[in-house]
Design a protein that fits this description.
Strand content: under 5%
Distance between the termini: 13 Å
Shape: globular
Number of helices: 5
Number of domains: 1
Structural class: mainly alpha
Order of helices and strands: HHHHH
Amino acid sequence: MNIFLWILQVLVGLAFIAAGYNHGFNIEKARTQMVWMKDVPNGLLVFIGISEILGGIGLILPAVTGIMPALTAWAGTGLATVMTLAILFHATRKEYQAIVVNLVLFALAAFVAYGRFVLVPF
């Protein structure tokens, strides 16, 4: 289970880092691909992007360095919270395809959090 959690942490972490870069720092290109971004102010997009990048780093870096590795579980919790808010946002806009993606990312981040809090804590 520990190896599975490590693989999941790295993959989910990299996915959130990439998504965060698109949401926060590649705004103009991302707006052509994601309709919802046209209705959100730049400041909020940057905040979302930074939150996702920091959460993705938090899934990987504390565990790899051994410096405060318990932060990995908290990063998973934070990212699951971000995905919950994203699901609510997209639900109000009836953007069901985005909800599916957010549900998958929520489940993966929540499982990492559960795995590192309960199954195989650091």
